[in-house]
Amino acid sequence: MAGEPQSDCLFCKIVAGEVPATIVRETATTVAFRDINPQAPSHVLVIPRLHYPDAASLAAGAPEVAADVLREAGEVAAQEKTDGHGYRIVLNTGAGAGQTVFHAHAHVLGGRGLNWPPG
After folding, report:
1. What is the rounded CA–CA span in Å between residue 109 and residue 111?
2. pLDDT digit string, tens, across residues 77-113
3. From residue 51, how far is each of 17, 40, 62 by CA, in Å?
């Protein structure tokens, strides 16, 4: 069920403290941690504590939490000192877009030039 922890979800296990992660920020509704396969000098994932499979379902089911994820992405960028140089927030939705963990999450990337278009 949407919003409920899923026993087979890696990110739900990180939220529960069952799987270790390098956590950089936590709020009542979000957890931010370093990506284990960074694509930039600063690469942090911001996830909702609630389980939604992707950004679209999070926005539809818990729009206030979706807003919290975006707000925290900005806080992460400031903490990482990438906000003054520019950073990117990426929300992949679906396997065809590169989503590999089906728990909504935002990638916050910075610390190098980020060309456009991506990919």
Report:
1. 7
2. 999 999 999 999 999 999 999 999 999 999 999 999 9
3. 15, 26, 10
Q: Which of 43, 51, 103, 105 is catalytic?
A: 105
Q: Please give the structure tokens belonging to residue 89.
A: 């927030």
pLDDT reading at 71 higher than 90: yes
Helix, strand and coil content of the chain, in percent to the nearest 5, comes to 30, 20, 50
Is 86 within 8 Å of 80 (Cβ atoms)? no
**Residue 103 is among the residues annotated as catalytic for this protein:** no
Q: Residue 12 pLDDT more than 70?
A: yes
Q: Report d(CA 93, CA 55) in Å as an integer.
A: 6
How far apart are alpha carbons 113 and 100 in whole angstroms? 24
Q: How confident is the model at residue 5 (pLDDT cuts 50, 70, 90)?
A: confident
